[in-house]
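INFO  loader      accepted 1 record
INFO  loader      residues=113
INFO  predictor   begin
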Amino acid sequence: MKRLRESKRGIKLYISVHTPFSEERKEMIPISSVYPIREVIAEGRNYADTREQKVVANYVLISGINDSEQHLLGLSQLLDPNHFDVTLNLLNPTPGRKLNPSSFERLDRLNKV
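INFO  predictor   done
INFO  writer      dumping tokens
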């Protein structure tokens, strides 16, 4: 992100958050042990400030995993609306995987929180 921030290219930055909680994120995304969420978010803020454009934080809702109101509250505390736009998405179902997307009703409810 730092190299992108320093480049002159007109790139809109998107980051995948998955969960606002560090330990939970390490289980979901092992590389987050190297790039902790707080550092990713701090670099995203720097990017937004330097580029004078918001960074998009993508959040994929997984039923029973990261779709609680506690998760959304943590997300709102993590992401400053002056620097980030948040996009809530439903997980794409994948045959053979035990993860399921949140329901459309859950998505609608979380969009109102």
